[in-house]
Structures are given as C-alpha cells and as structure tokens.
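Continuing the batch. This is chain 6 of the set; chains 1 through 5 are on the previous pages. Same settings as before, nothing changed between runs. Recording input and output for traceability.
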Amino acid sequence: MKKTKIFLLVFIIGLCNSYLTACGETNYFLEEPIETIINDEGDTVRYANKKEVITDFNELSYDNIIVEKSFVIEKRFSYGYQGMTIYNNFLFQAHDYGGCIEVHNLEDNTFAFAIERKKGEYTLHCNNVDFGPLKYDTDDPFPLLYLEHSSGRHMTSVYRIVKNDSAYTMTKVQQILFTGCTNAITNNDNINGVMYVSHTHDGIWSIARIKTPDYTTKNDTINLNSDVVLDKFDVNADKVAQDATVYNNKLFQLRGYSGSGELCIYDLINQKTIFIIDFNEIGISGEPEGIGWYKDHLVITNNSGQVYNVYFVK
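Output for chain 6:
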C-alpha cells in the first residue's frame, strides 16, 4: 500500500507539472526522475520528473534539497582527491600533492583528459581549485586556473592551461601569498571581478572581498589586514574548511571530515550565513572535497571520487 501511495503521488505531481510547463508559467529542470533517501527508515522515493529551481536561498530548508548519487571518478593516480571546479561541461578534479588534474565530461560522465603539472610544482596540499575571469591568451582553451594550497602555506598558485597536439599541460604564471591570517582559501567571483578569501584570524573565520589580483604580477603578497580588503565579515564556523565556489552572490563552502561534512551557504551581499546543510541528513558520505556549479545544480565530490548532484527545488 505504501508503494502504491507513493506512485499515485508522483503521478499526480507529474501531471500538474506537465500542465504548468505547457502553460509556460515556470521553468523546470530534471528531465529524468531521480531517487534520494528522504527518511530515517531508508525508504527510497522516486520524485516527480520536474521540479522548480530555487533562486532565493533565504527560505531554504531540508525539504528543498534533493541529492542524486552520480558516477564515481575512476582513480588513475595514486594521490588523494582534493579540490574540484567546473568549466562549461568539464569537471576538473585535482589531487593531493598530485602532478595532474583529471577532467571529466559531465554530459556523459566520462573521462576526457588529464592536465599535467611540472615536477616540483606539486609539493603542497591542494585544498581548493577555481577558475578566474581571464585567459592568459585569447587562444587558450581555458581561463587561468587558481590552485590554493592552504596547509602550512597560505598561498594560491595561478596556472595557464595550454594544449599541444593532444596533450594538455599547465604552467604557473603567478604566486599569491596571503599574510595577516592563519589560513586562506580563495574563490573568484568572475561576474563582479572580485576574489573572496576565506581565512582565519585570532581563531575566527572571516570572508574578505578583494579585487582579483593582476596575474601579470608574478609574485604577489596580500595582507588581509590592509586597505586592499574592500570589506569582510566574520562567520560562525568550527569545522575545517574544504573547497568552495561562488554562485549568484553566494559562497558555497564545504566543511568537515568524513562523518561530519557540511555545506555552508553564505550571503556575500548581506554578509551573513544563510543555511548550513548537515551531510548526514541528506545522504552525502565521505570527506567532502570538491564543489562546483553545473547548469542549475551543485556538484560535490568526496575523497573516494563519488560525485553527487545536489538540487535546490521548490
């Protein structure tokens, strides 16, 4: 009887959404149904095949979150998975101390290519990966890639990606060292031309907004206690910071280790915490490592290479 009720509910919702779409009253995504665990009993419920996307996260609750367990990144190298970013249809997965970045095509969830790094340039922990607003050369296949090291060295390295024949390589063009803090994680807001630096000072986590540094300055040092900071605000966070991404004037930051992972959503305009999502509540396991936006949803990867799609819907 329980399965019958679920089926009827899904069928009715599907009819209603089909009617609204035909009338052109709203925009929807999710062409195929998805499955997610939604209760403590472990029941798997198939949702209606179309849901309306949330754009205002201020009213967000767990009822608005749908998680789809997607593919697993095949491990081709001995280094652990770390930060991740997305450009167009490509997912760029970085590795801890690794000499390469794996790239997967999200249209069909297949391996596309790997980008090699020079030996001697991958001796530091890779915590966060993010694309900047500019290309080094207009003919380059991708914008400049910002790789943040964090542990012990609060430094972001900027790389140019080039393609020679069928091989992709990356060359460091800039190194940014942050002072006045005890940790620093950088994320670019490519729409507004600024960089957000999540950092700690006196044991407090803050998010600072600065102008995206000029990449032609090969070695740059930025003091987060100086007037180079446009503004900043403190956040209540007590777990280790992982990868993050900026989208629609919000910072989506992963925190915690395996079993304690969470997603913190910060409003960068009103300078406040909007919502903190406990991954134990939505079925995301492992240590959260990478995060990025793809079309209308978040993509999150963990330390085992598992890829999750996270949808925020009404």
